[in-house]
Automatic annotation (TrEMBL):
GO biological-process terms attached to the record: DNA integration; DNA recombination
Name of the protein described by the UniProt record: Tyrosine recombinase
Keywords assigned: DNA recombination
InterPro entries: DNA_brk_join_enz, Integrase-like_cat_sf, Integrase_catalytic
UniProt keyword annotation of 4Fe-4S present: no
Record keyword Nucleus present: no
C-alpha cells in the first residue's frame, strides 16, 4: 500500500480555517488557497511577487521551477478577495514597502 502524498480538500479547508485566527491569518489563508488551487510547490509560492498578480485582469503568473516554464492562471473571485485582504493587512506591516 502506498502512502498518500497530498492533502485532501477537507484537510486544506481545516488548515485555512485554523490560520484565520493568527496574527498573519490573511497572509497564510491567501498563500494556502493559492498553493492548493494552482498546484504550487513551496518554492514557487516563496518565489511569488506582488507583481505576479494582476487583480484587474484576474490573473496570476506562476514561475514553475521544476520545468522552467511560467504559466498564467485565472484567479477566482474568492482568490482575488483573499489577495485584497492580505494586501490591506500587509500595508500596516513595518517594512512592507521594502518587500
Amino acid at each position: 500500500m502506498s502512502k498518500r502524498r497530498y492533502l485532501t480538500g477537507k484537510e486544506v479547508q481545516a488548515m485555512m480555517q485554523a490560520v484565520c485566527y493568527g496574527a498573519t491569518g490573511a497572509r497564510d489563508y491567501c498563500l494556502i488557497l493559492l498553493a492548493y488551487r494552482h498546484g504550487m510547490r513551496i518554492s514557487e509560492l516563496l518565489d511569488l511577487h506582488y507583481q505576479d498578480l494582476d487583480l484587474n485582469e484576474g490573473r496570476i503568473n506562476i514561475r514553475r521551477l521544476k520545468n522552467g516554464f511560467s504559466t498564467v492562471h485565472p484567479l477566482r473571485f474568492d482568490e482575488r478577495e483573499a489577495v485584497e485582504r492580505w494586501t490591506q493587512e500587509r500595508a500596516n506591516w513595518k517594512g512592507a514597502d521594502r518587500t
